[in-house]
Backbone:
């Protein structure tokens, strides 16, 4: 796979020396090529376009073979991506081709999120490669690269302009993948309409800042053809797997009542141009651009997101080891902090709860202190009542005993009266009172009656 | 991080092409791009001084790498082992090659040669480290490949066997760089001596389990025949010469002796004179790319995995290291993070549990004491109420008694009143007093 051969800089301090004969290192490119051929090549195409624009047919036509898949219905709830990988061989060159189709693109009523699953898919492939590259024990040279090398964007042949869905989607994809826009089913547009359409599309793309893939013009051997082709973008294509007899040959074509559209006839459509540019001339460049531009951008963003930097605050470059160690220390520190925080939180809660419960306990005690006091008050009252009752009882008893005593004394005094009359009522009056006297006298009368 | 979706590992189906597609042109595209990019190669030569290293380099690349203006290191006297690099740019057939020659003057020249391999190892490692750092940067731009792709080790033509220094050096370096041993100044050995010497060396190499660079088989049978022939000739015995002499009317590079000319450049079918041409063919014309690939895929990866394992396995017990090596350090950190999150969750759950239990306990205690106090309160209340009732009863009884007695008293009073009335009558009648 691509590794140390990608970036190179012939620095200073290098002097050119002449050779006195044939050394033989001019075979280096051949050596490299042989190795690549032995390893086999790999290419991944993503087809983005609304259902029914002929994506699968175009792939079949482009690669002269029948790929899998049935035509999809229009009732998909969202955009899903289906990918299939095939092994193809042409002369001694083996190609592992992956075709990814967007299923359900443009079918929903609300298409705001249509581009999301596509972007996610592309990012996932980048992520997988990044993960492999970052592993400690890695096998990059035998890694099956699944990154998308080219994205064919199918534009519906309305003849007017790009749809807003197209603009939005292409804008989101242009920094992630090489976009090659094509006008699909272009046999629906007349020649003059097509020219205007192409100009409109190109100007809309430019004014919206969408960067589509430009065929490279820095290599002299292909610069000319590439720059010519660049001016024919977007290619207007027709796909067909059916063959029609033209003259004495069978050619791929679409037969209409009014005529036959030949796929490989350059007057009829740009199919041949697309095939030339995409496969025969620039396939390797598409792969290189994906790796050196789009993947590097993804990688840079991802690493920066994770906090990796190239230089420390003193602008001295970090060595990988330092970076990883620093990251790890940071990470461990973070984890410990989290643990501490949680512990602290619990300690806090425990404290709070304790205080709460103590409060409750205090309240309870107060409540019962109050009740106790109430009790005691009641008890006191009760005691007082008891006492007053007792006092009353005592008084009554006293009265009673006093009355009885008087009665007894009156009886005794009746016996004394017969002998000491004169001193009687003096004695009486000094001993017992009037009542006692009358009682006594009644008894006396009873007694005198007896006499 | 995004997980790999299932579609990333698809089943691969074969398809036949029914017509021209055009990707058979891919090799040409690769060819074109590689020529435009240019090539790099770093070759290291190690051996005692005087073994003809500089001469050999000049011969190999047919250029005066070391000339009057740029004298080779052997011309300069060194006390300790140095590692010196010279970079030249050579062009041939439209292909540009940036060649770096790394020389090691002073190697094996001291009386005590222990650790003379250390500067060499340090150099190789430092180039690998440079590449590793460049590869690991966030902003990666050009990554020049200065790693050592091949190390030619010169064996002195003693005719006996490998010296202990030779063995020691090769054992230490065979894991870090592609080592190709050469017998230097082969024109001092007769063919038979050379054969014996070679056999001896190979035997010793195998005994000490030294892994020298193996030229891999190719798919081409013709090439494979040649490769097998070469393998039989290992280690290659070379003669280098900067001088062109005339032999049988032909101009050849060779060394002129009184007894003849030891030719260097002509490839005779049975390789009579020396293996130099074989060396040049294998090193430059057929296996240069493979040397670079092996350096990149094997030696560099070894270095890298060792380096990164050391970084990430800091403080982690070795029982876990095996599984961790298949992950990137970042993925590993992610996993650790996840583990930690789970641990925290568990800890949290536990703490919650303990907390709840304690709270329940305390609350229960509180409830119990509340109930107890309630009960006592109730009891006291009941007690009081009983006493009240008792009191009421007593009072009632008392009242009743009082009322009765007072009723009685009233009757008595009435009687008294009646009696006093009659007494008054009697008094008036003079009965009493």
Residues:
């Amino acid at each position: 796979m691509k590794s140390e051969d990608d970036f190179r800089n012939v620095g200073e301090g290098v002097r050119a020396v002449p050779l006195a004969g044939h050394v033989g290192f001019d075979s280096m490119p051949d050596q490299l090529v042989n190795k690549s051929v032995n390893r086999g090549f790999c290419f991944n195409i993503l087809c983005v376009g609304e259902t029914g624009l002929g994506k699968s047919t175009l792939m079949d036509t482009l690669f002269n073979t029948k790929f899998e898949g049935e035509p999809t219905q229009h009732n998909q709830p969202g955009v899903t991506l289906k990918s299939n990988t095939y092994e193809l061989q042409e002369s001694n060159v083996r190609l592992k081709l992956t075709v990814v189709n967007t299923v359900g693109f443009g079918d929903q009523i609300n298409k705001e999120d249509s581009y999301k699953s596509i972007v996610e898919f592309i990012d996932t492939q980048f992520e997988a490669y990044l993960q492999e590259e970052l592993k400690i024990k890695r096998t990059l040279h035998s890694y099956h690269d699944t990154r998308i090398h080219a994205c064919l964007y199918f534009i519906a042949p309305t003849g007017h302009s790009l749809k807003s869905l197209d603009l939005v989607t292409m804008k989101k994809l242009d920094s992630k993948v090489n976009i090659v826009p094509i006008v699909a089913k272009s046999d629906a547009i007349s020649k003059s309409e097509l020219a205007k359409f192409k100009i409109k599309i190109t100007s809309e793309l430019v004014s919206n800042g969408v960067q589509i893939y430009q065929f490279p013009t820095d290599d002299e051997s292909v610069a000319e053809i590439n720059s010519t082709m660049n001016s024919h973008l977007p290619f207007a294509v027709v796909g067909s797997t059916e063959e029609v007899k033209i003259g004495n040959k069978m050619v791929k074509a679409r037969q209409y009542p009014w005529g036959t559209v030949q796929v490989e006839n350059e007057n009829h459509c740009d199919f041949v141009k697309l095939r030339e540019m995409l496969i025969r001339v620039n396939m390797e460049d598409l792969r290189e651009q994906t790796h050196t531009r789009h993947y590097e951008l993804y990688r840079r963003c991802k690493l920066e997101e994770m906090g990796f930097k190239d230089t420390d605050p003193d602008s001295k470059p970090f060595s990988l080891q330092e970076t990883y160690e620093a990251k790890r220390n940071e990470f461990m520190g973070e984890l410990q902090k989290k643990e501490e925080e949680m512990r602290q939180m619990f300690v806090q809660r425990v404290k709070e709860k304790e205080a709460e419960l103590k409060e409750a306990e205090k309240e309870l005690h107060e409540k019962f202190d109050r009740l106790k006091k109430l009790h005691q008050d009641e008890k006191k009252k009760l005691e007082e009542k008891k006492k007053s009752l007792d006092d009353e009882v005592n008084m009554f008893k006293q009265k009673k005993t006093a009355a009885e005593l008087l009665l007894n004394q009156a009886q005794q005094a009746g016996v004394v009266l017969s002998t000491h009359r004169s001193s009687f009522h003096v004695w009486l009056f000094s001993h017992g009172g009037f009542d006692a006297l009358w009682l006594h006298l009644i008894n006396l009368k009873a007694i005198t009656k007896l006499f | 991080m995004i997980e790999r979706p299932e579609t990333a590992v698809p089943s691969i189906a074969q398809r036949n092409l029914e017509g021209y597609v055009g990707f058979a042109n891919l090799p040409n595209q690769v060819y074109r791009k590689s020529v435009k990019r240019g090539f790099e190669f770093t070759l290291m030569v190690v051996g005692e001084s005087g073994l003809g290293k500089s001469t050999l380099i000049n011969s190999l690349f047919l250029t005066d790498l070391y000339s009057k203006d740029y004298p080779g290191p052997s011309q300069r006297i060194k006390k300790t082992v140095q590692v010196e690099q010279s970079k030249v740019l050579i062009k041939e057939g439209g292909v540009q090659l940036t060649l770096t020659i790394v020389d090691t003057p002073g190697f094996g020249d001291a009386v005590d040669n222990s650790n003379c391999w250390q500067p060499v190892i340090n150099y190789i490692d430092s180039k690998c480290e440079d590449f590793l750092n460049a590869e690991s940067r966030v902003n990666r731009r050009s990554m020049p490949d200065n790693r050592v792709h091949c190390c030619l080790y010169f064996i002195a033509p003693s005719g006996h066997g490998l010296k202990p220094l030779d063995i020691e050096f090769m054992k230490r370096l065979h894991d870090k760089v592609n080592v190709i041993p050469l017998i230097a100044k082969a024109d001092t050995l007769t063919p038979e001596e050379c054969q014996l010497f070679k056999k001896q060396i190979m035997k010793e190499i195998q005994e000490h389990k030294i892994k020298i660079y193996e030229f891999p088989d190719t798919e081409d049978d013709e090439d494979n025949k040649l490769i097998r022939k070469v393998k039989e000739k290992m280690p290659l015995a070379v003669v280098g010469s900067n001088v062109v002499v005339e032999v049988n009317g032909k101009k050849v590079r060779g060394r002129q002796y009184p007894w003849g000319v030891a030719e260097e450049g002509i490839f005779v079918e049975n390789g009579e004179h020396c293996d130099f041409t074989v060396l040049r063919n294998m090193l430059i014309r057929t296996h240069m790319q493979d040397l670079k690939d092996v350096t990149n895929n094997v030696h560099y990866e070894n270095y890298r995995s060792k380096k990164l394992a050391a970084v990430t396995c800091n403080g982690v017990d070795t029982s876990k290291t095996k599984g961790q090596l298949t992950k990137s350090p970042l993925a590993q950190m992610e996993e650790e993070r996840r583990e930690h999150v789970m641990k925290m969750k568990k800890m949290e759950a536990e703490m919650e549990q303990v907390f709840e239990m304690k709270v329940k306990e305390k609350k229960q205690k509180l409830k119990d004491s509340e109930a107890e106090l309630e009960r006592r309160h109730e009891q006291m209340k009941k007690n009081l109420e009983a006493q009240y009732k008792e009191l009421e009863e007593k009072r009632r009884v008392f009242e009743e008694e009082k009322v009765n007695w007072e009723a009685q008293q009233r009757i008595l009073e009435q009687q008294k009143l009646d009696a006093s009335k009659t007494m008054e009558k009697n008094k008036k009648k003079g009965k009493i007093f």
The CA atoms of residues 3 and 9 of chain B lie 13 Å apart. Confidence is low (pLDDT under 50) at residues 1-10, 265-273, 315-324 of chain B.
